[in-house]
Design goal:
The protein is α+β, with helices and mostly antiparallel strands. The protein is built from 13 helices and 21 strands. It has two domains: 1-402, Beta-lactamase, CATH 3.40.710.10; 408-482, Sandwich (Immunoglobulin-like), CATH 2.60.40.
Length: 483
């Protein structure tokens, strides 16, 4: 009874975080914080942390309510929450990074990378099928007309033997013997197991552990302070949120009998990561500013699929994609024991919001829409958010030295094979080459003068590299996506 009364009071008492960051004008802050407090009360969130970007700049970081209500610990921007299915976006971004390095072939049979996964009756599954949720791999034990239990005994054994490590190859034993539901590419079906299988593919494609890929391709390039795999041996993490859930319309403690309450590291690529709102806000910033991916690769990440059954999907390669207020919108939500999460941003206007709560079942989309729609009315002021300290495992790892990415432009991109190359200034003595994803040169021409060129090439679907070199030493590459 004491717990219920205390928890109920949390919804009516406005708690300000002990630490925060803000660059928004005062009118905007008052408006946005009223949105947050209203939705926090309406959705019965015990704790919630919010991050915003405005025109590619970190604009706001703050927590509301309780990280732990019984211990009277306030939520802040440093509170650690589970990402849940937002982890799928991180996995998709790792895949995009490997594609840029020509280490991953989207169209290759995934069994060429992971032969431990058995061949299935419906045929070959590719990485493109996995990342777009069109593989036919069952989501947990399935639903509707396609159900089959996964191996709970194996899952429990895996969890017991992997308290501080993640092995995606071993973890596929949880679901590898399940049937698949349809011909890959023929329809959309959301699946966590599909992303777990993708984690195994990425590990083999890069010849590097998934944990190392997370560090080297995401955490270290953007100096993310706390994004990581949640391991049993490391709990409790500093500032780790206590878990709650909405049950029968009321708030209760998280279900302590749930496997996911105790461990989520058996499904890392699909839902096993943990971070603060700072990490996801910096990740969002890095994406919209094209720090992590080239513009063409970011567009590929969000390219919506239409399966062969003709029903359009809203999913890209690890992100959902829609349109709002005339701009492309990328988003991914997550729901899991102890958490509800949402990342919601536009790569075009460079505005976005991250919301992380410790209350499973809380609805976050209404708040995200309110904030996102208001952000263009706000103005930035004051000092920029400081560059985070490089995490200790990141020694010597980071983004390559910046280069002039604005000199060579490829439009449209993605393309059907007809596209235009333009440079901001005329160049002399240019070698122009195009390579497929195996490194084979499929086009080459020398130009005495170059500033604009329209090409029509018969290219199969995939990702190509355009390489421009001048005899005086200038070199630039861009990705070309053929749909």
């Amino acid at each position: 009874m004491k717990y219920s009364v205390f928890l109920g009071m949390a919804f009516f008492v406005s708690l300000q975080s002990q630490a925060q960051f803000n660059r928004l004008d005062s009118v905007s802050v008052n408006t946005l914080e009223q949105f947050i407090l209203n939705e926090k009360a309406s959705e019965k969130m015990v704790g919630v942390s919010v991050g915003m970007i405005r025109n590619g700049e970190v604009a706001y970081l703050k927590g509301f309510g309780y990280e732990d209500s019984l211990a009277n610990i306030a939520a802040t921007e440093s509170t650690m929450y589970r990402l849940a299915s937002v982890s799928k976006s991180v996995t998709g971004l790792i895949a995009m990074r490997l594609i840029e390095k020509a280490q991953l072939d989207l169209n290759k049979d995934i069994r060429d990378y992971v032969p431990e996964y058995p061949a299935k009756a419906f045929g070959v599954i590719t990485s493109e099928d996995l990342l777009s949720n069109e593989s036919g791999v069952i989501h947990y034990s399935g639903s509707g007309n396609c159900t089959e239990p996964y191996n709970v005994t194996y899952r429990n054994s895996y969890i017991a033997s992997h308290t501080n490590s993640y092995d995606p190859i071993a973890a596929i034993g949880i679901f590898k013997d399940q049937k698949t539901c349809f011909v890959p590419g023929s329809q959309y079906q959301y699946t966590t197991w599909g992303f777990c299988l993708m984690g195994a593919v990425l590990q083999r494609a890069a010849s590097k552990s998934f944990d190392s890929l997370l560090q080297d391709e995401i955490v270290c390039p953007l100096n993310l302070p706390s994004l990581q795999i949640e391991y049993q041996s490391k709990k409790p993490y500093p500032h780790q949120a206590e878990g709650y859930r909405i049950s029968g319309g009321q708030v209760a403690l998280a279900d302590t009998n749930s496997t996911d309450y105790k461990d989520i590291s058996y499904k890392v690529p699909g839902g096993g990561m943990i971070s603060s709102v700072i990490d996801l806000t910096l990740l969002m910033q890095g994406l919209v500013n094209r720090k992590l991916l080239a513009d063409s690769t970011l567009k590929l990440f969000g390219t919506r699929h239409t399966p062969t059954n003709g029903t359009p999907s809203y999913y890209g390669y690890g992100t959902s994609t829609n349109f709002r207020n005339g701009d492309t919108l990328f988003w991914h939500s997550g729901s899991q024991e102890k958490t509800a999460t949402l990342i919601y941003y536009s790569p075009e206007n460079k505005n976005g919001v991250v919301i992380m709560s410790n209350t499973k079942g809380a609805g976050l989309f209404p708040l995200a829409r309110l904030i996102y729609d208001y952000l263009p009315n706000s103005t930035l002021q004051g000092t920029k958010y400081p560059t985070p300290t490089t995490p200790s495992p990141c020694s010597g790892i980071g983004l390559p030295e910046p280069k002039d990415l604005s000199l060579l432009k490829v439009t449209p991109n993605p393309s059907n094979g007809t596209f235009r190359l333009e440079t901001e200034q005329s160049l002399k003595n240019v070698n122009l080459s195009i390579y497929d994803n195996t490194g084979k040169q499929i086009y080459h021409e020398f130009y005495n003068h170059f500033d604009s060129l329209r090409l029509t090439l018969k290219l199969t679907q995939g990702i190509y590299t355009i390489d421009l070199q001048t005899q005086d030493g200038f070199n630039q590459t861009e990705k070309l996506v053929i749909q």
